Amino acid sequence: MAFQLVYTSSPTSLTIGRTGFSTVARSKSMPEKLASAVERCGVYDVGQGEVFSHTTVNYGGETWHVLTRMCDAGTDYTNRNNYIAHHIVIAQSETAKLVNPAEILAQWNGWFSKWEGEPRFVGNVEGLEKIAAKNALPAKNWERIFGNPAKAALLDRHPATICAGAEQARILLDLFSESLLLNVNPLDAWEPTFTTSRSESDAAFLWRASPDELSAPINLSAKSAPPAPQSRAAQYAATGVMTNREKYNLKVSAPKPATRLQVVETKQTDWKPLYIASAAVTLCALAAAAWLLLPASAGDSAQQSRTPSELPTLGLSENSAKSDTAATESQKPKSAMTLSQTMEIVRGKIAEDRYGEALKFWDESPKAAGEPSLRRDILEDIGTRADVLMRQAENLLALESPSKPDIEKARKNLEKAARALDIAGMGRIEARTAKLKTLNDRISTK
């Protein structure tokens, strides 16, 4: 079950006494406070074309995912420019059975492009679970536009900026979908928030596009992007082949410790059989490890012939290659760096949760004086990183019986988020601090 809400300019509203931009339709069972929070998701200021976004709001102790399509709606009853925003609102607990949010935004056929008639209550959104993914791996859209499917791994769980026009919104959805498919766990594909056209008044998005982001590393209009990372995610994006460990969700664990020690006195031992047995066990272990790293389906011998340096981490949050690149770039004199290189190093430090260092690196860069607005973007990236950390912690705490490692990971995520929120100038600080407190209160009861 999913709610829906339609927001546009109208002489009458579902809210008594309101005129102009307001809610003209929503699911009857949708709580009013949740509807009020959803109304604020997105402002349309591109003039024409579609804008798609995925963000989250919190209500009733649960995270709600808001999928939005906005478009020009001609003129309103006062003959002023009008737009319509149609929102689908899905509870976090409902996302496990759905395809990724970019696929739903692109494929759902119930979007309103113009509102006619009186404001009214409408039914819930049905049939989302029947939508099948149109995109698949290898990442053909990334290959078609940027020449390499492995570049789908450039979008991970860290902030990314893209230069793209509003007319490229549906192309962006295909690119976003392929990057989201790198998540082995479908639930993880619902963590990144994104928009195909960023507005100045928009809330922070993890991935955001705008025609004004001329210095963005990924430029859809110019079909340019940084080299693909040398990671497992990039390898998966290029081949679409999982290893057996990934396919079967296999985990390696240490043997359980013995409950007691037993000392026995033995006579002279013939060690030769023990050496043979030990060698056999070692060979079996090596064979098992090799099997875990094999592709999960046959017929991929060509892919296995690639050298490790060509293989791009499924983990979807692995940035070792990015860190290595950033480290190399950071050794250059700052005056010799391009704006793109400078921002990559800044974002690399944010991805490693070194927020103070990221801001200091930018402030001391020669580029800072000529691009003062980018400091605001860096603060927004830090805030978005805090949002992601808190959302990951929330997902861990929402498990039916979280393990001690899960709770410890959630606690560490909240500690990192708290450090991010301590940065001066952080946006939406009250809401973010309130959420951090709520999660810390929940973790104290575990």
Topology readout:
Blueprint: E1 3-10, E2 20-27, H1 32-39, E3 50-59, E4 62-75, E5 81-91, H2 101-107, E6 120-122, H3 140-146, E7 160-163, H4 169-180, E8 194-195, E9 207-210, E10 218-219, H5 232-239, H6 244-247, H7 272-292, H8 301-304, H9 320-330, H10 339-351, H11 355-363, H12 367-370, H13 373-397, H14 404-421, H15 429-444
Parallel strand pairs: 2-6, 7-9, 7-10, 8-9
Antiparallel strand pairs: 1-2, 1-5, 3-4, 3-8, 4-5
Helix pairs in contact: 2-4, 9-10, 10-11, 10-13, 11-13, 13-14, 13-15, 14-15
State the helical fraction.
25-40%
Relative strand content: 5-15%
Biggest sheet descriptor: 10 strands, mixed
Show unreliable segments: 251-266, 298-329
Summing up helix and strand content along with how strands pair, one would put the structural category as: alpha/beta
Principal-axis shape equals globular
Protein model, in words:
There is one protein chain. α11 (355-363) runs antiparallel to α13. The protein has helices at 32-39, 101-107, 140-146, 169-180, 232-239, 244-247, 272-292, 301-304, 320-330, 339-351, 355-363, 367-370, 373-397, 404-421, 429-444, and strands at 3-10, 20-27, 50-59, 62-75, 81-91, 120-122, 160-163, 194-195, 207-210, 218-219. The two termini are 30 Å apart. The protein has 15 helices and ten strands. With 446 residues, it is α/β, with parallel strands linked by helices. Strands 6-2-1-5-4-3-8-9-7-10 form a ten-stranded mixed β-sheet. A hairpin with a 2-residue loop joins β3 (50-59) and β4.
